[in-house]
Amino acid sequence: MKRLLITLMIIASISYSCSDDDSRPSSANVNFVFSHTWDDVSIDNDNLNTINVTNENGELLDFTRIRYLISRFEFTNIEDGTSFLFNGYKFTDLSQTSTYNFSADNNTIPTGRYRLRFVWGFNEADNIDGAYLDLNSASWNWPAPLGGGYHFLQMDGQYNIDSTPSNYNFHNGTARFSENPPVYEQNFKVIDFYEIIEVNDNTSVEVIMNISEFFKNPHRWDLNILDTPLMPNYEAQKMMQDNVETVFSLGEITQN
Amino acid sequence: MKRAFCLFAFTLVLWNCSEDEVGYEPTPYQLEIPEIFADNIIAPIIPTTNPLTEEGVALGKRLFFDPILSDDGSMACASCHMPQSTFTDNLERSIGIDGLSGPRNSMPLFNLAWNYNERFNWDGKALSLETQAIEPVENPLELHSDWTEVIERLQNHPEYPELFRLAFKTSTISIELTTKSIAQFERTLISANSKFDRYSLGLTSLTPQELNGLDIFLREDKGDCFHCHGNPNNPLWTDNDFHNNGLDETFSDLGLGAVTGDPNDNGKFRTPSLRNLQFSPPYMHDGRFETLDEVIDFYSEGLQNSSTIDPLMKNVSQGGVQLSDSDKADLRAFLLTLSDPSFISNPDFQN
Question: Name one Pfam family in it (chain A) (predicted).
Fold first, then answer.
């Protein structure tokens, strides 16, 4: 009788534990939704080619195309320091809304509390010339004489459109320190977010890209001086690397 | 009585089935992906609704070269897309069966299955190779025919019904099946054996002049050709996208803008591949430049500003990228390494 009572208590205990676990899954999927702004104004495929904005330096400008690359999405658990690196990279073309979201094929992680980081562009290990067939097919390559690999950003348009319109090509990638002898400097940036992301269930993380920050912080960008060509301009490349630091922020975190 | 009826019905079904060839399947066509493509770019687009078959490709090839598609039987697709001219016609603007010229230069045809956007023609009007093949047949400036009559001619032809049956398991000919077969043939037109391809594969070397030309091509502060025309890692040598490259201040031909209705697209045309330039003059959508030298001079000093000019066009106010004479010669030497003589002499692509 005593043995039966103990057995029943164990079963009841297990049942209680199970029902507790059912209320909070042990793992969940994480997906990323990117939105793009110029400060408070949303930019997407509908207004990319029609919106006019004024940068920090006072130039009125427009956009013909904006494409960029992000890689190594990584969640770090703030309790135990465990990291989860999501496979793949995100190549975004603002004219194609289908490229705005990102779901890695290994996007299931244990529930918990995390911080996010990702890499602007490719880090040195990933930035292998010609290695990614989809990016080659999109002509996203950074020329070999400039260090090879891939573009991180291609933003094209015109500035001073209210006076004497001129073209700008705000392209970012490997920085060439010297042409002869060729010396190249990796130009990626690790973007860390300090907000805590609670993953209790399948989670959607909004990342906001504020494009105006490329022209603002810490370097106020003067397109009259730095418009094109910028790819072989070492100082311009390093300024872009500095300015990308504040471009991204976290938006809404939703669970479902 | 019931059994007799069943037997009759079964026989009827079998009879009908034999008309549409139950049991027969066309032979799948193994599209050979060149090493330089397999190593560098993603797979070609082959629609699941129109898989390549040996019989379909053969039928498409025959139709491509057959003047039966034109109203008076005088011209075929190949009249304006000749194999020896890398499937263009070397005319400024193509001339149709009535002796009238159209508004545009005939586009060369190769590597079409790698046009990932699937927008064809200079203006992107055709949204697949299959639909592209529809329009020229009835265009009064091209084959000036009537599809109903074309289908009738094909249906009454002594051989075509059987060729369609072999390709599509039905001898009932339609516009859809006709254009499907032409599209199948066009997808087999692959050019990937230029001197530069062999250089990329480590099979040959380039001269110092050709290498310097490549450097000019890839330098944003020199030619800056690569943003639209690919690079050694994209052997298509086109982005297949649409740009206003600064040909005109005002547009007599709106290009993509006439298709989308968006004024921001006015004056934009599809980037042509730089492969086989040696065989495909004249150049641009209206064939305005007779020689490669004229094209290089245009990008160097001849750009015209307009409201939709692509910002990738450099130094527009000075007319262009301002190349020196030696830079121009080197760039030309490099561009000619992209020519593939084996493509224009490939027996699979001849009539």
Answer: MbnP
Q: Give the CATH architecture of domain B195-343.
A: Orthogonal Bundle (1.10)
Q: Cβ A130–B232 below 8 Å, yes or no?
A: yes
Q: Which residues pair with A75 in a beta bridge?
A: A84, A116
Residue A17 within a domain? no
Contact A143 B313 (CB under 8 A): no
Chain A interface, mutation test: which of B111, B220, B309, most A Cβ atoms within 10 Å? B220
Q: Which of A19-33, B87-101, B161-175 has the lowest mean pLDDT?
A: A19-33
Which chain A positions have a beta carbon within 8 Å of B226's beta carbon? 139, 141, 143
Domain residue spans of chain B: 19-190, 195-343
- Report CB contact under 8 Å: A229, B220: yes
Contact B253, B318 (CB under 8 A): no
Chain B hits for A228, Cβ within 8 Å: 220, 311, 314
Q: Which amino acid is at B37?
A: F
For residues A119-131, give the mean pLDDT: 98
Domain count, chain A: 1
d(C-alpha B207, C-alpha B333), whole Å: 9
Look up the CATH architecture of domain B19-190.
Answer: Orthogonal Bundle (1.10)
Pairing of strands A27-38, A203-210: parallel
**Mean pLDDT, residues A59-75:** 98
Contact A139 B232 (CB under 8 A): no
Residues of B in contact with A134 (CB under 8 A): 42
Interchain CB contact of B316 with A (< 8 Å): yes
Q: Compute the half-sphere exposure of residue A101: CA atoms within 13 Å on the CB side of its CA.
A: 9
Residue A23 lies in a domain: no
Q: Please give the pLDDT value at position B20.
A: 54
Instruction: Answer whether residue A2 is part of any domain.
Output: no
Residue A7: band (very low, low, confident or very high) from pLDDT cuts 50, 70, 90: low
What percent of chain B clears pLDDT 90, i.e. is strictly above it?
94
> Which residues of chain A are at the B interface, by a Cβ-Cβ cutoff of 8 Å?
49-50, 64, 129-130, 133-134, 136-139, 141, 143-146, 156-158, 166-169, 171, 228-232
Chain B residues with CB-CB distance to A144 below 8 A:
218, 232
B40 vs A: CB within 8 A: yes
Region A30-42 average pLDDT: 98
Q: How confident is the model at residue B191 (pLDDT cuts 50, 70, 90)?
A: very high
Nearest to B195 by CA among B183, B210, B212: B210
- CA torsion angle for B114, B117, B119, B123 (degrees, to 10)? -110
Q: Which residues of B touch A159 (CB under 8 A)?
A: none
Residue pair A228/A167 in contact (Cβ under 8 Å)? The answer is yes
Q: Rg of chain B's alpha carbons, rounded to an integer?
A: 23
pLDDT for A19: 46
Residue B18 reports pLDDT greater than 60: no
On the question of pLDDT at A30 being above 50, the answer is yes
Q: Which residues form the domain of A105?
A: 29-255
User: What span, in angstroms and rounded, lies between the C-alpha atoms of A201 and A12?
Assistant: 26
What chain B residue is nearest to A46 in terms of C-alpha separation? B262
